[in-house]
């Protein structure tokens, strides 16, 4: 048998740079890798650099993350950094702020370029990155602390009203009412509820018979009572109750009393208040849960 005098090895290089050795006696080459690097791939989707993640308690759409913005919420002179989806409603924002501020959702008033309605999206009210949002509302503990006295005062007021003659017939009110409707009084409308106008309510009289106007500073949670002599700024949270009664013969106007303390002497009285604004005044000062 013929034998080969020697065998030789050919060194081959693959396109990838791996070394291949083969012997002429072998039918198939043996592939030997000089270096093997094992890498694990991460297939998880990462948010783009600079994007904002949304709060965990906000529902996320199936097709991706919601667009979120960062802004500042101001409540009782305290500032809170908030991040929230731009296409969520004001009502959802209130729910998110409930735990942050300690103010129940139903007691919150969100102010941004005016009063923001619950059904509006943050995008619709024009909220933008870095904006400042004012939230007005009392914490639940504060509400509960005054709710019992308020209920008692209302009950006492009801009992007193049932036993007394109408306000416009009582001596201290009659002297003002008998002067008649002021020439500059705002028109009164019966059986209608209108929102507060963007300007002060004017053309009314106070208990001294002087001209008086009411300005509702919702963003400051204040009621401004202006007269010729001065403007008094009253925190709405200090107003315990509001009573009102139509004026006989002029039912489109009311006598309205704002209760500041526990006695009748601590009331501010206003005469010739247009009837269509009475409910809105109570809602703005006391909130719909009290009014």
TrEMBL record:
Residues 149-164 have a biased composition (Polar residues). Residues 16-59, 149-173 are annotated as: Disordered. Residues 69-142 form the Ubiquitin-like domain. SMART domains: UBQ (SM00213). Transmembrane segments: none annotated. Pfam families: PH_UBFD1_C, ubiquitin. PROSITE patterns: UBIQUITIN_2 (PS50053). It comes from the Eukaryota. Residues 28-42 have a biased composition (Basic and acidic residues). InterPro entries: UBFD1 (IPR039120), UBFD1_C (IPR057455), Ubiquitin-like_dom (IPR000626), Ubiquitin-like_domsf (IPR029071). One of its GO terms (molecular function) is cadherin binding. PANTHER family: UBIQUITIN DOMAIN-CONTAINING PROTEIN UBFD1. This is Ubiquitin-like domain-containing protein.
